[in-house]
């Protein structure tokens, strides 16, 4: 079932909004390119709300002190221990096959954001 969570214009670029749908904590995020994603708002490590964390780019490098921010991978970082989750897939960056958060389908209709739960 689709649930209205906000207006598209209410989500700023790299912004997020915590919502509760059917007693499920969900964080809705808007990427730099304007796409909207929804993830479970609970870090699987110790349980804090991911919505209290920050959206950032994945950082890589070939040597110590080298930082390359990968634009194609935006992450939501846990506020407690900095675990990072891809906002598109919910997969962690350090163990993508084992550690992830649930994602939900998002649709935008008439400038309104809906999440399917």
Automatic annotation (TrEMBL):
The entry's keywords: 2Fe-2S, Iron, Iron-sulfur, Metal-binding
Recorded superkingdom: Bacteria
Domain Rieske: 3-115
Secreted found in the keyword field: no
Keyword Ligase: no
Gene3D superfamilies: Rieske [2Fe-2S] iron-sulphur domain (2.102.10.10)
InterPro entries listed in its UniProt record: Rieske_2Fe-2S, Rieske_2Fe-2S_sf
Coiled-coil blocks: none
A matching Pfam family: Rieske
PANTHER family xref list: 3-PHENYLPROPIONATE_CINNAMIC ACID DIOXYGENASE FERREDOXIN SUBUNIT, FERREDOXIN-RELATED
Identification of the protein by name: Rieske (2Fe-2S) protein
Record organism: Metabacillus herbersteinensis
Source organism phylogeny: Bacteria, Bacillati, Bacillota, Bacilli, Bacillales
């Amino acid at each position: 079932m689709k649930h209205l969570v906000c207006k598209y214009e209410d989500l700023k670029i790299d912004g997020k909004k915590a919502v509760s749908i059917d007693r499920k904590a969900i964080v809705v995020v808007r990427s730099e390119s304007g796409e909207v994603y929804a993830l479970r708002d609970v870090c699987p490590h110790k349980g804090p709300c991911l919505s209290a964390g920050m959206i950032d780019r994945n950082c890589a490098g070939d040597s110590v002190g080298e930082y390359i921010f990968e634009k194609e991978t935006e992450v939501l970082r846990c506020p407690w221990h900095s675990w990072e989750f891809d906002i598109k897939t919910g997969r962690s960056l350090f163990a993508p096959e084992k550690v992830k958060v649930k994602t939900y389908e998002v649709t935008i209709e008439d400038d309104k954001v809906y999440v399917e739960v």
